[in-house]
Amino acid sequence: MEDWLRFSVCFWHTFRGTGADPFGFPTLHRPWEDGSDSMENAKRRLRAAFEFFTKLGVKYWTFHDRDIAPEGNDLAETNKNLDEVVDLAVKLQEETGMKLLWGTCNLFANPRYMNGAATNPDAHIVAHAAAQVKKGLEVTKRLGGRNFVFWGGREGYHTILNTDVLAELSHMANFFKMAVAHKKKIGFSGQFLLEPKPKEPTKHQYDYDAMTVIGFLKHFGLDKDFKLNIEPNHTTLAGHGYEHDVVMASAFGMLGSIDSNTGSPDLGWDTDQFPMDVKNCTMVMKTVLEMGGLTPGGLNFDCKVRRESTDLEDMFISHVGAMDAFARGLKNAAKLRQEGVLTRLVKERYLSFSSGIGAKIAKGAATMEECEEYILQKGEPKAASGKQEKYEAILNHYV
Fold it and tell me: What ranges make up the beta strands (E) of the chain?
C-alpha cells in the first residue's frame, strides 16, 4: 500500500496556520512558536515539523519558500535567509530519511503581487517573480524535490475592464518557458506541475480547472513540460464533482500529483478540510490504480485543522484519519478493479465502437456520407438506458 499511498504533509497549513479567519483572531497557539518572524523561530518551527513528520510516519513533505524562511529587506537578504533554513532542512532530511515531494514559491501573499505575479501588468514585478522562482527551483533541487508546483492564486482578474487577457496569458506562458529553461540549465529532474483553481483570491483565475489548464499548456506548447497537481477542493469550487479533475487530467496523461483535501460544496470558498469521505477517496484511488500510480507525485495533505480543533493531538488525528480514509479507498478500488464489474459494464456500453461504423468513427476514419448511408440502411437508432442507479448501487456495494 505504501507504494500507492505516497502521503505528504504540507508545511504551510500544518506549521504556519493559526486558525485566524476574516471574523476571528488566531486560536492555534503552538509551543514552538514565539510569535516572531525571526530566523530562530523559523528554525525551531522546522525542527518541530520534522519531529511531527517522523512521529506520524509519512515519508514526504511540501513547502512554499516563504513558509520556511522570512523575507528580508531585499532579494539578496531573502535568498540568504532561505539558504540558511534550507541548510537545516537538508540536515534534517538526512537525519530522518524524509523526502521532499515538491517545493513551490509563494507568489500571492506579498503586496507586490496584488495584481498578479507572472500576469502582473508591471514588468518589474514579473521579473521579481521570475527571480523568486529561480531561487525556488534551486533550493528544491538541492533538497531532492520530486516535483515543483506553480499555483497562480493571483493570476487572474477582478474586472475585465482593466485587463488585457491575451497579454497576461502570453506573459504567463513565457514565464513558464523561462522556468523550463532554468530547470534544464541547473539539471533539475523533477516534474513541473500546474495547479488549477477557478477563483479565490481573484474573481476569475486563469487556471480555472483541469481542461482549461490542459488547453492552455497545449496552446502554448508547454504540455510536454508540465503535468497537473489536482486539488479536489478546487475542483468542487469550479462546480464539478470531487473526482472530476483527477479523472480528466488522468485521461489525457496529465495527472502528476494530488493535493488530497476536501471542501464543503454548500459553501462558496476553499475550506481545505481533511478528506474523510471514503467514497471520494475510493474514486480517486480507482483513477490512480488505473493509471499505474502517481510517482513521482503523491497524496499531499493540503489541509488545515478547523480553528476549533486546538489541541496538538488534533494535528495527528486529522492526518491519521485522512490516511485511513485513503487506505480504505485504495482497498475498495483494488477490489472494484479486481472483480471488474463496473469495467465490464462500461465496456459493454461502448461496444458499438468496436466494429463497423463505430470502429471507423473511433479511429477518425468515417465520413459524413458514410454515416448518412449507414442510417439510411439501418434506420432510427434505439436509445439505451444509461443505468446510472445501477452503477451507483454497485459502487455502494464496494464502499
Answer: 7-10, 60-64, 99-104, 147-150, 156-157, 191-194, 204-205, 226-230, 255-259, 299-301
